[in-house]
Design goal:
about 280 residues; about 45% helix; about 15% strand
């Protein structure tokens, strides 16, 4: 891949997703472009760049962002967040619900990838906030990749991924595949029904829901953004939290050096001030 081709790709990706591709990502970009060259029957990266410059390249641009987006995740990744949700956030918000008269407990998985995060949230809430509590909950999940959203909606995972969960969790929340689906597990329908999936570029426009959230998970996303974009995103997410609501970021991320109004609760957990 020529310098000019890499510069074109990285500029295009940044303009449409705000993902910052540094020089260290050059080999990754080349590898992932290989898939698009095969799909478009294009014989070189140079010709692929010409394809992207065409006036009708919007669909291929979406495929490019899909290919570049990193979607590494697993169930209960950074498990301390789910412990904090169960032990601290739910009891606090449940007590406030009685005076605030919130209709539901709303959680946003802002970069949901292939669904492991929102389904982990759903499993946690099923146990921490059961239907018998009298207060319902709902999870909104968004991602920039159409391809990965389809996988999340289907809720089908290989047995080597699901096998890392406790046996009781697997029995309660998954169905084992048979026949053509042998070796796979599917999230049970009643749990899938509690998560709504939407395509969304976090930095463009407003999400397709209006309710404020008690909790927003936006983890391991900002590491791909530059500082101005991180600041823009954090402040956008903050506005979607109820006063006293929580923003959970990845443990490899920090809001140090970013202008924001959030209070640090503990590493990777921030809270919007109650009176804001």
């Amino acid at each position: 891949m020529r310098d000019s081709e890499f510069e074109f790709i990285r500029t295009l990706v940044y303009e449409h997703s705000r993902i910052q591709l540094g020089p260290d990502k050059r080999e990754l970009v080349a590898a992932r472009l290989g898939k698009r060259l095969r799909a478009t029957k294009t014989d070189s990266i140079g010709h692929y760049c010409e394809l992207l410059k065409a006036g009708d390249a919007e669909d291929e641009l979406a495929h490019l962002i899909d290919a570049i987006s990193t979607n590494h995740t697993f169930f209960f990744r950074e498990n301390a967040h789910f412990d904090f949700l169960r032990q601290h956030i739910v009891p606090e918000m449940q007590a406030r619900h009685r005076t605030e008269r919130w209709p539901q407990f709303y959680v946003w998985s802002a970069a949901c990838s292939s669904g492991e995060e929102p389904y982990s949230i759903a499993m946690t809430l099923t146990e921490a906030l059961p239907r018998t509590s009298g207060w319902n909950w709902r999870i909104e999940a968004t991602d920039i990749s159409h391809r990965i959203l389809d996988k999340a909606r289907n809720g089908i995972y290989r047995d080597d991924i699901v096998a890392k969960l406790p046996a009781a969790t697997i029995k309660t929340y998954f169905q084992r595949g048979i026949g053509p689906q042998e070796g796979n597990y599917r999230v049970r329908a009643e749990l899938r029904a509690m998560v709504s999936y939407h395509h969304l570029n976090l930095l463009e426009g407003e999400p397709p829901f209006r309710e404020p959230f008690q909790v927003i998970f936006c983890r391991n996303v900002m590491i791909y953004f530059d500082r101005p974009t991180q600041e823009e995103l954090v402040n956008k997410l903050t506005r979607r939290l109820v006063p006293g609501g929580y923003l959970l970021v990845g443990h490899s991320e920090s809001l140090t050096g970013i202008k924001h109004s959030l209070q640090l609760v503990k590493p990777a957990i921030y809270r919007r001030p109650l009176h804001s």
